[in-house]
Design a protein that fits this description.
Elements: H1 7-30, H2 37-50, E1 54-55, E2 74-77, E3 80-82, E4 96-105, E5 108-117, H3 124-143, H4 150-163, E6 174-176, E7 183-187, E8 204-207, E9 210-212, E10 218-220, E11 228-230, E12 236-238, E13 241-245, E14 250-252, H5 260-263
Antiparallel strand pairs: 1-4, 2-4, 3-11, 4-5, 6-7, 6-8, 8-13, 9-12, 10-11, 13-14
Helix pairs in contact: 1-2, 3-4
């Protein structure tokens, strides 16, 4: 089902999106060398519950996971790119960490992810990989508007990622979002322009470019049955925002309040 929200629904999505952005901003600021992933999960739980919101992850049990996820945030370290289950691990200097968070507030969900280096940045290739996912996301947002096609967004993402030299996995990508976290349509991270569903005002999309440094193959962590890792053990990066299609373009909903001054809204011209 492709859900179209009315203006009141979009207003609620703005609140949920800001909450997701603010929590991710807070958690990133708390990440230090030695921080335990399980502590990050507990901090996320506290911030979600204090805001009167609900985690989209705790009871999430899709066919590709091993039972309910059971945690409040996804934490992917180095070779873990998607669905990273928090575990008893203390962050090391130079780790490449991805935090992925989705919550529901007042009946509307929002979803976002950030990747960053913990402590010392040792490898310029890590910075370039994170930058590529951020640029790919920005490229898709810049052309998102009523009348554009899903394939236009997929193509924009793919052009940036492949242009930066990365292979693109099409098993997992962006998705519709609204009263539930994962909805139609699927938004692949590569595609053909002019194809697919036509965007309409009131649509919410979670766009999420992600790459692995030297492969497009994933493996599932055999210990937790959830964490998706690069098949070669290489480093990975993942960036995501929830956007709302407006009458004139796209509004980024999952920015932190601290980012409001410079990136409060992206609108196509």
């Amino acid at each position: 089902m492709i859900e179209i929200l009315n203006s009141a629904g979009v207003d609620r999505a703005r609140v949920a999106g800001r909450l997701v952005g603010d929590i991710l901003h807070t958690l990133k600021a708390r990440c230090r060398v030695g921080t335990n992933l399980l502590d990050l999960d507990q901090w996320a739980k506290q911030l979600i519950l204090e805001a009167g919101a609900t985690s989209c992850y705790v009871d999430y049990a899709p066919p590709f996971g091993r039972g309910p996820f059971g945690h409040y945030i996804c934490t992917g370290v180095n070779d873990a790119v998607l669905h990273g289950m928090p575990r008893n691990y203390r962050l090391a200097d130079g780790d490449l960490l991805t935090l992925d968070l989705a919550v529901t507030k007042d009946g509307v969900a929002a979803d976002a992810a950030i990747s960053f280096i913990v402590g010392t940045t040792r490898n310029p290739a890590d910075v370039a990989m994170i930058d590529a996912t951020e640029r790919a996301l920005a490229a898709a947002i810049d052309i998102a508007r009523p009348g554009a096609r899903l394939g236009d967004l997929s193509h924009a993402i793919g052009q940036v990622l492949s242009g930066a030299g990365y292979l693109i996995n099409l098993e997992f990508g962006g998705h519709g979002i609204g009263s539930t976290m994962h909805q139609d349509p699927h938004v692949a991270n590569n595609g053909r322009p002019g194809r697919g569903y036509k965007l309409r005002p009131g649509m919410l999309l979670a766009l999420e470019p992600w790459v692995m440094a030297d492969t497009d193959r994933l493996i599932t962590d055999p210990d937790d049955g959830w964490t998706l890792r690069s098949a070669t053990g290489c480093r990975t990066a993942h960036t995501e925002h929830t956007i709302a299609i407006t009458e004139t373009g796209a509004e980024v909903l999952t920015l932190a309040k601290a980012s409001e001054a410079t990136l409060a809204r992206r609108t196509t011209r």
